[in-house]
Structures are given as C-alpha cells and as structure tokens.
Design a protein that fits this description.
Elements (H helix, E strand, L loop, with lengths): L1 H4 L5 H25 L5 H17 L7 H29 L5 H14 L1
Helix pairs in contact: 2-4, 3-4
C-alpha cells in the first residue's frame, strides 16, 4: 500500500513486483539444492544473515519502475535463501520426535514477524 499510495506506483506495477519477487524466491529454492551440501554450517549461517540484511535493506534503492522490478527479484531471492537456510539448519539439528512442533513454531514466528 505504501508503494501505491505514497510512492505513486500503479496497482498493476505493484502486482508485477509481487510476481517478480515470487520468481526470485522460486529460483532461490531451486538453486539451494545445488549448493546446500557443499557449504559448511558456518558458511550457511553467514549467508543467511547476509541475505536477511539484503532482503531488509534492498528497497532503499527504490527509484522507479525498473529499480522496483530488479529490487523485487533480488528481495525475493534473498528472502527465500535466508528462510530456506534457517529451515534446513533447524531440520539438521532437531530430532524426528520434535520436527513437527519445531517447524510449526518456526513458521509461526516467521509469519508473525
């Protein structure tokens, strides 16, 4: 709503940004399988932090339609990469008996935030 009401983007442009963001997230999900086992846990944690910061601060560079589309793609990619890393690391450390509860709690916290 902020982008439409205060920044002057059309509803169509806003919808396009959401679609592009989802495309970035889909690509991040597909690529994660290519590198997830090659990186150490420490590297994954660092990558997750970097991607979280990038996803949070990426919109500072928003200037117009073109930058909005690029930023939306990068934001979707960065957000999903960070989220998948966190879920993967949680899956690696929790036992099978607690997996359902752990993931329900993680998803609740992610949705709440």
């Amino acid at each position: 709503m902020h982008m439409i009401e205060h920044m002057g983007f059309s509803e169509q442009a806003s919808g396009n940004m959401v679609s592009i963001q989802a495309t970035g997230a889909l690509l991040a999900s597909a690529l994660y399988t290519a590198y997830c086992r090659r990186l150490s846990v420490t590297q994954l944690v660092c990558l997750s932090i970097v991607m979280g910061v990038l996803a949070t601060t990426g919109y500072w560079g928003l200037r117009g339609d073109r930058s909005a589309y690029v930023i939306s793609f990068v934001d979707g990619f960065a957000y999903m990469t960070g989220m998948i890393i966190q879920l993967d690391l949680a899956a690696r450390v929790c036992t099978l008996e607690t997996a359902g509860t752990t993931f329900a709690l993680l998803m609740s916290l992610a949705n709440f935030s």
